Every structure is written in structure tokens, then in C-alpha cells.
Amino acid sequence: MMRASASQIAVIQKVIVPASTTSHYVDICIDEFLNTASIHRELGMAGEAGETAEDRQARLVAAVRADLAAETPVSLKVAGGRSGTSKESDSKYTSYFAYQSYALVAMVMMGISSIMMVFNRRDLRLRNMCTPVPHRGFDLAIAAGHAVFARGCWAIMVLFGLILNGTGPFSSGLVWLYPANSLVPTVVTAVIGSAVGHFVKTSSGQSGAVNVISLGMGFLCGAFVPQAIMRQSVLAVAKFLPVYWYIRANDSIAALATSASGSPYPIYGFMLVQLGFAVAILSVMLLFSKERRLAEL
Fold first, then answer.
1. Least packed by Cβ within 10 Å: which of 89, 116, 148, 191?
2. Are both 176 and 271 inside the same structural domain?
3. Distances from the Cα of 146 to the Cα of 107, 159, 241, 281, 284, angstroms
4. Residues 58 and 144 grouped into a single domain
5. Whole-angstrom Cα distance, residue 60 to residue 52?
6. Is the pLDDT of residue 55 over 70?
7. 272 domain residue, yes or no
8. How many structural domains does the chain have?
9. Using an 8 Å Cβ cutoff, are 209 and 200 in contact?
């Protein structure tokens, strides 16, 4: 809203929400209008004979509006000759499965660690050790339950991906790589959640461990920020975390979907690296679990 004071100085008043995106957009529009008006006044707006100040101001405003009304058409060319709709769908899937790594890790870790904390209570653990069921069979039964729970979480996340992003990428024949790649960190997270349940004793410690691990891997490994713009020193540390290789595989799937020629074998390699993390973590957990079990005998 513009008002003129007694000295005929125009004053612009604006009402905005502080630190909001729309407030910055309003500032840009105001600056663009005033800069264009300044150019007209200095270079192209000469006064006419018998023209009043109000008429000249109206002519200036009309000229500025005419300049700002011009639009420039922009077209985006997609590599490989694919349609823009398919490209947009692939991008949505890539972003969704990148963010999904955080939600999936937190969900699986919280559920499995909660179960393991109950089974690892001293009274219940000693009672189970007295049963005629072999320890190997008991551990396999718990592992099977963890697998069912983890696969259920994975299926829910994949289903939500289909609901939110549609079935556009199905035409490329590579859409199955996204859920297949997300299934691998589900296995790794199930092992991590079991380890957390073995070593954490309280619910507050469990919440802290889940938040630190899930958020830490999300930020360091490129789930929230693309790896392409992250510092090499950060990525060097992230290589020791399984989610880093999941994001590498996710980005490789996106590149393969938009390329006429490419091989999926590097993606399989990234999946195997993640499974290697699962084997390593499981080995350490079983070692400590055996030592604790022998100490309690």
C-alpha cells in the first residue's frame, strides 16, 4: 500500500509473516517494480507538454506494468528422449526412496530393539535358558520374527511410495530396483536394531540410540542432502556407514533409468556392500552375546 506524506514522498507499507518464503518473494517483486520504474524515469520517460505530475506517474506505472507482464517461455529437454512426465516420476521415486531410508531405519530399529530389550531382561533370559528348547532354535525363532516385522515395515513404505508417486517409472522396466535396493538396508537395520536391544537397558537409552543412528546416517550419508554437494571429508566418513551405499545405489538407479546405455552391476555391488555391514554387525553381536551367556552360566 502506497501513501504520500505532506512532502509528497511515496511510502510503501507491507504486512508479512517474519522469516517466511512469501515475505522474500514480496521483497523481490517490490524491488523489481521500483528498479524498472527507476530505469524508465532516468532513461526513457520524458515529460510531455501540458502533462501533470499525476498523469506522468500514471503513464510510468503503465509502462512498468507492461514491461513486467512480459513472459519468457522455458522448455526442458530430457536426456535420452524420455518424456518429461516419466522423468518427473523417476525423480520423485529417487527422492522418496532416499528419504525413506531414514524412516525405515528408525521404524525397524525402534520395533526390533523394543522386542530384544524385553527378551534380554535378566529374569526372562534366565527363564528361557532353562527351557528344553535349544538356544539355536530359540534364536532362529526370534530372527524369523524380526524378519517378518522388518519385511512388514518395508512393504508399508513401498506401498506408500506407489500411492504417493504413481506407477510412472514402471514403463522403464527398472522400477523393481528401487524396492529391491530398499530391502537390503532393511536387513541391515534389523541387525542393528537387534544389537541395540542387546546392549541398551533403558527406554531413554533406546530412544537416544535410535535417533542418533537414524538421523546421523541420514545426514552424513546423503539421505537429506545430495551426496553430489557434500564435502569429500564427510563422504569419506560416511563410507563406513551402510546408508551411504544405499544412497549410492539409489542414485545409480536414477542415472540408469535416464540413460540409454548402462549396466546395473554397480548397483548390485552397492547392495553386497550393505549386506557385508549386516554380516559384520551380526558377527560382533553374536560374539558379545555368547560371552555374556557364558558369564551367566
1. 148
2. yes
3. 12, 20, 22, 16, 18
4. no
5. 12
6. yes
7. yes
8. 2
9. yes
Domain that holds residue 51: 2-68
pTM score:
0.66
Mean pLDDT within 241-258: 87
Bridge partners of 3, per DSSP, are 11
Could you read off the pLDDT of 105-136 as tens digits, one per residue?
999 999 999 988 888 887 777 777 777 777 77
- Give a yes or no: residue 77 inside a domain: no
Summarised one tens digit per residue, pLDDT across range 162-188 is: 888 776 655 556 667 888 889 998 999
Question: Is the Cβ–Cβ distance between 280 and 272 less than 8 Å?
Answer: no
Cell numbers standing for residue 55: 498523469
Whether residue 18 is contained in a domain is answered as: yes
Residue 248 has, within 13 A of its CA and on its CB side, a CA count of 20
Q: Find the largest Cα–Cα distance for the chain.
A: 109
Tell me what pLDDT residue 79 has.
Answer: 44
